[in-house]
Structure formats: C-alpha cells, structure tokens
Amino acid sequence: MSTLTVSLVQFDITWQQPDDNFRRLNRVIHPLTGHTDLIILPEMFSTGFTMDPETWFEEPEGPAYVWLHTMAGRTGACIAGSYIVRDNGKYFNRLLYVFPDGREYVYDKRHLFRMGEEHLHYTPGNQRIVIPFRNFRIKPFICYDLRFPVWIRSRNDADLLIFVANWPASRRNVWNILLKARAIENQMYVAGVNRTGKDGRNISYSGDSAVISPKGEILASLETGREGVLTCSIDLNELQRFREKFPVHLDADDFTLFA
What we know:
Layout: E1 3-10, H1 18-29, E2 38-40, H2 53-56, H3 63-75, E3 78-87, E4 90-98, E5 104-108, E6 131-133, E7 136-142, H4 149-152, E8 160-165, H5 172-186, E9 189-194, E10 196-198, E11 204-206, E12 210-212, E13 218-221, E14 228-235, H6 236-245
C-alpha cells in the first residue's frame, strides 16, 4: 500500500486531569474509526506539560498505556502520544506507538527542555527508533527534539517524521519553520501535533498542527488556536519519485551518533 492516512488531534489539554482528557479524546477519536491509519496526539496528552512527575507518573503499563491500547483496538488504527512514565525509578517523557493488534514501540524524549526545567525532573532517552507500518518507515520525536537536526537526521532510512508537542504560542514561528526545515533536509513527510489553550503554568499554546511535504509545503494544517482533527493522506510512491529525481541523500555526510 503506497498511501497512509494520518489524523492529528489538536486539543486543549485539561491540566493534570488524565481521566477528563481520556473522556474528551474518546469523543473526538471515535468518529475516526475506519477512516484513518494513524492517530497522533500531543505531548503529555493526559496531563499537560507538567514538571511534577512525582505526582502524575504512571508505571509502564498504567492508565494511559491501557487507554492507548484500548483505542488502537477500537478504532483499528495505530495511535501515538507521550505521557509520564516511571520506569526503574526514573521518570520519562515517553511516546508510545500502539498497533491495533497490540504491538507497540517506545520512544523516550531525548532533548529535555531546560528552560522549563524538564532536565531536572526527567531522564533523557538515548535511542532513536524506526517503526515499520504500511510500507512506511516512521520516526517519532517529542517537542524540543525538533530543534536538534543531528539527532533527527536521516539518510533515506525513514519516510515520515512525527513530532508531538506542547510548543508555546510565543515561539510558534519557530515551530512552523522547523517543521518545514526537518522535512526539506531529510526529504520526507513531517507530521507535527501541538496542543492549544493555556496550561496550569499560564503558558498559551497555538496548535499550528500540520502535515508537511518533503519539499517543505504545507499539505494540511489546523486553525491556529482552535481545537480540531486534521486527516491527511500521504503517498510513498510520490516520495520515492521525488527522491529518485533529486537524490540529496547520496551526497549527505557520514557521521556516527553517540548517545
């Protein structure tokens, strides 16, 4: 199959109220059943971007884990989003990517946002992952990772980059530019999902969720500041034709990435 239908869920996360966020997302996601292949949620979708992991953490197979597995099974679509996990006594901002059949992939946020003191509360991840799905190769990342092109850099080893975020409205221009930059330099599709509203620290978020083409074009986007769901199809054959016509990756520099 050469196409993949992706749905981005942009919403105002209720501050530190997981059960309320699960209920709200149930209503939003249910209509997507049978109409999409992949559902992507914002960063820390169950709590908001809190620096109180000691209170809001889950064990590796806690409520958000169970909810993601349940929704994947109900909708028949893969679903991805990050939440707070305590694993072996350490706290992680962890993205879980779940298949309808229960298979899963885990990515722990590598770059912790020191200006928000995330590095004082969470442990950074040290592994990039590639998720095979419908002939696509997918790499997931979390928010601040977007600023670090070396960590993200691919050499024709992925087709879609996912970024889940709580990216403040005050830096929305940077978000929009970097999504396009990561798509262009890696010659691949990019899906960026951000929240809206205002969190418990009085920080505002503009959303600006979008799907970007390998040429840096906006294929689809959600209205700034408004909750909503964006569903967009991307075409692997089209991507491969572009890479064959303009094979930038063949001239890319070799490098070794250490954790």
